[in-house]
Design a protein that fits this description.
heterodimer; A: about 550 residues; mainly beta; Methanol Dehydrogenase, Chain A; five-stranded mixed sheet; four-stranded antiparallel sheet; B: about 280 residues; alpha+beta; Cytochrome Bc1 Complex, Chain D, domain 2; SH3 type barrels; 3 domains; five-stranded antiparallel sheet; 9 helices; 7 strands
Chain lengths: ~550, ~280
Amino acid sequence: MTTEHRSRNALGKPSRLRATLQHALHSLTFALTGFLLTQALSAQVTFDQLVNSAKTPQNWLTYSGDYAGRRFSALDQVNAGNVRSLAAKWVYQTGATGKLETTPLVVDGILYATAQDDRAFALDARTGRPIWMFQHPLPADIRPCCGHVNRGLAILGDKVFFGTLDAHVIALDSKTGNVIWDIVAAEYQKGYSFTVAPLAVKDLIILGVSGGEYGVRGFIDADANSGARKWRFYTVPGPGETGNDTWEGDSWKVGGAPAWNTGTYDPVTNQIFWPTGNPAPSNRGAARAGDNLYSNSLLALNADSGKLNWYFQFTRHDEHDWDATQIPVMIDSGSKHLIAQANRNGFFYVLDRADGKLISANPYGKQTWSDSKDAAGRPVASKDASPTLAGHTVCPGALGTTNFMAPAYDPQTSLFYVTARDQCDIFSTAPQPYQAGHAFYGSAYFPSEEAEPYRGFLKAIDPTTGQIRWSFEHTSPTWSGVLSTAGGLVFTGDAEGNFVALDAASGKPLWHFQMGGAVYSAPIAFAVDGKEFLAIAAGSAIYAFGLP
Amino acid sequence: MRIPATTRRVSYPLAALLCASTILCPGQTNPLSRDPKAAKAGEYEFRINCALCHGLGARGGGRGPDLTRAQKKHTHNDAEMFQVISNGIPGTVMPANGTNGQGVGMTDEEIWQIITYIRSQEVKVPAQPVGDAARGKNLFYGDANCSLCHMVEGKGGRVGPDLTGVGGSRTREAIIDSVRNPSRRLAWGLSEATKEFPQEYETVTVVTADGKEIKGVTLNEDNFSLQIMDASENLYLLEKDKMRSFQKTRESFMPRYDTGLLSDKDLDDIVAFLSSARAK
């Protein structure tokens, strides 16, 4: 994957011959998949398949579609020339209400997904007909911070894996939904929960915890396929560990730094890149003086041991709830091996993924918190950016320039696509004692009365320069992620319920479909019987689209 | 004091089922009533969960009513307030506990703390009403021309928001401000979680494919279609790619009523009328 990526960039755009060959290869793969479907389904996914996911574009094997976090599909049957005839193929009503943030996985014609009430299900990906459904019973007193949420699952071998709002990790048989194992990772009563889609690496199921609003001590767990814990990395170092002195007194004990979004993996260096969230209490820095490591950071961990190779902290001593939990996307540019993140604090960061050294940081939305950079080029907070008792306006607001919405990187256009929001908030702060299991914000925030209306965009960023190549404005800010495809298209959803296809090079909208519910998820592409599908969750349902 | 989980989810539906009559059933009582510690804890919870709309100190914001008033529109006692906080108020932007996308889901204990806090902030003697409601009603339906666009209790125009009950859901200051500076609060918008109809009553001007100009307010809009109403209350359902032009301003369709157009005394009377016409 990495090699192909590099040669492609060296050549500029892929040659016509190369494209034709790729096309032929895809057609062959489709034909083979079709054959398999009428025979029998193995429903097995190996680590090798996950590493080489680009070779099977008919499948969508991980949360971001590949280990690099690109959310790019090599399928091109649906393309800029024919997308106008894209039509709904099926709709699956989950029955769950609230925010459906799930990214489905697709393996050999079977689609696996979750819903926010901690159900998981498998569908016939051609028709949307259910094969099985499992729902984990949740206690009444769970403590999800921001509504009931689940972003999806991981698949490895003959099992699918997901985390629950009461901090369980569950392995289900992928053919039946039967529970193979169910382990408790932490005490939900203290505010620990899982909303993240796990990542399968080698024999490990990796996932990070939620609960930054409850003063948890954040961690990233690696559980073996068998259910045995292999390692745990605490995102807040304990006494005697490097970084513990970046916390005032005992504040590290309730330091937060959750790890609630899915990381990425570099098979070449065997490193996991996992982002972390806000220090707790989120909007009050008093009593936790220091940088508060490793909150709001990108961690490079050895996949086998969970040992920290390097870290990069985006926002030091954060007081604005700017979790750095956005997907870190691996990008290869010539001989450079980079990792890029569109951060919630309004800056687009590019790092060297060998050592975490900062290469560039450029604003990609409205920001007022930083007016200078340190010697390393890292944006630093201005003196008056901190929240006050009476309240004080800062941009971006608490929701950030972006948030959990999955971005996409398209190796054909070499552009990074991300959902962005321009909104400023009045940040207020007040002292608050910690009480286990109770919300721990130390604050409130409000929309600014005098502020401009909130604006939402899909932005295409050139990662080599940080420049915005194009920007498409939504009617209002959306929580949808982005998918790019080899068909020269970018897909996204909006708050008004539209599923939209845009030209990847220009940002011009080419097609849309009104799904009748706001989008909080990110699209995927897959193929069955040689036919390409696009799928996305909206409202309470999963929608699949294809050509007539 | 923690309320055992088992009693929580069972008690309210069961109580509602058994207690058809409020005389026979005293209703749910607040176990933390008048507890100053609970009120303090409730203040933290209030800041996180409620202040976004109801303002710091519960004194009301642009969206939520002033909760320091002893008389509430939707609740008469702690038990009803508990239900409203838990389940929201259908048809309003008041969301159910944990669904506003901002704060966290609260436990029953935390909800009681908030109620205790709100009670501690209530002003027992309501401010003397300013203005003459009867005269305000005449102005509303007469010389001030409010009813050309606004309805109260089923009577009046359709272009602006229905003002029935607005006296209970907005502070006096917020009402006065929206009359004097109607364009100022357009910027408030609504957070997505509570947004069904993004009506801000901003002025839109559309020129259709056949050259017809329509000026009105947006009822709804997405990137591809538009639903508007003009001053004569005609509905137009339009597709954006078929319009010749489309302009949206951040100016309210409502004219700015300065003191030359409406004196302070007249406005006080109209606000008094709107406050008297609270939903029963």
